[in-house]
Amino acid sequence: MTPTLVRNQPGADASAPADAGTRARDWAEIQERMLAPLYEAVYDRMEVGAATRMLSLGCGSGLAMLVAAARGAHVTGVDSDRERLALARARLLPDAGWDDAPAHSRHPASSRARLLEDGGPAPVGADGAPYNLITVFEPIGCAAGDSEGLAPALRSAVPLAVRGAAVVLTGWGPPERCATAAVLQVAARLADTARPPRTEPGRWRPTLRDDLEDVAARAGLKPDGSGRVSCPFGYADVGSAVRGLLSTGLFDAAVRATDRSQVEKEVAEALHPYQREDGTVWMPNVFRYLVCVT
């Protein structure tokens, strides 16, 4: 495989917490792995392997890319979060001067990795071969405005792919199938204390049945199948659960409306019904994926 990372939208988000690095690590070390069953299900469905040239939009800290690379795929990642992208670089390019790369992530296939620092997506590999799979593993449909920039990004990425390439979008399943939805409602309630518009970007809102299909339509993509995947959220304790959930960004509006300590306290209280006798936290969830063709 040949992993490639590129950074777009340079500059820090003004609304991001001061401890952006800590939050990125919480995402990478606690929360991101909760979506591993989703990655595996999509890759099984798409038969990801040595012939796959994948572009991952919103690649985060790179776990989905690492899983694809372990299957032999050539992967490129794009993300606007500098902190998460730095962690992805450490995972995928462990020999590029990043001393904190986890030892378990040093897959032999990463030895031929290359990194493009700036700009939009570039063709994978030195030969400029186009992509044949585009993935969006940042789940949409759980925060107001979370898909606003996705359709334009997809329209820009599709010309880089071969004709008929697959595009996979992912999102939260029905709220009644997601235990975490009850905890995420805390974000909406606390955000309302400042009486922001209900459409404030990042504010939690219930998932809608056609969220993924709406994005596909706006991007000019044709749906060609879908699936649901069980992705339970499991944590060692309530403290880890709070850190993991806050790393998603879904509580940012609540933090802005109140303060972090209050949000942490109320999230911890909302997690009590899901805490087991041994102190662990377990919340069953269902996520969706939509396969489209270019």
CATH fold name, please?
A: Rossmann fold
CATH evolutionary superfamily: Vaccinia Virus protein VP39
CATH-defined architecture: 3-Layer(aba) Sandwich
State the share of residues found in helices, binned by percent: 25-40%
Shape: globular
**Residue windows where pLDDT falls under 50 for at least 5 positions:** 9-18, 97-109, 111-119
Number of strands: 10
For the report, how would you describe the main beta sheet?
8 strands, mixed
Structural class: alpha/beta
Q: Strand order within the widest sheet?
A: 4-1-3-2-5-6-10-7
Distance between the termini: 24 Å
- Assign the CATH class: Alpha Beta
Per DSSP, the total helix count is 10
H and E order = EHHEHEHEEHEHHEEHHHEE
What does this structure look like?
This is Methyltransferase type 11 domain-containing protein. Residues 1-23 are annotated as: Disordered. It comes from Streptomyces globisporus. It holds the Pfam family Methyltransf_11. The chain has 294 residues and is of the alpha/beta class. The chain has a single domain, classed as 3-Layer(aba) Sandwich (Rossmann fold), CATH 3.40.50.150. It has ten helices and ten strands. It has helices spanning 20-31, 36-46, 63-70, 82-92, 150-157, 180-191, 211-218, 238-246, 252-257, 260-271; strands spanning 4-7, 53-57, 74-79, 114-116, 131-140, 161-172, 222-230, 233-235, 281-283, 286-293. The strands form two sheets. An eight-stranded mixed β-sheet has the order 4-1-3-2-5-6-10-7, with helices on both faces. It has a two-stranded antiparallel ribbon with strand order 8-9. Helix 1 (20-31) packs across helix 8 (238-246), helix 2 (36-46) crosses helix 3 and helix 8 (238-246) crosses helix 10 (260-271). The longest helix is centred in the first third of the chain and has 12 residues, at 20-31. It is globular and about 50 Å long. The two termini are 24 Å apart.
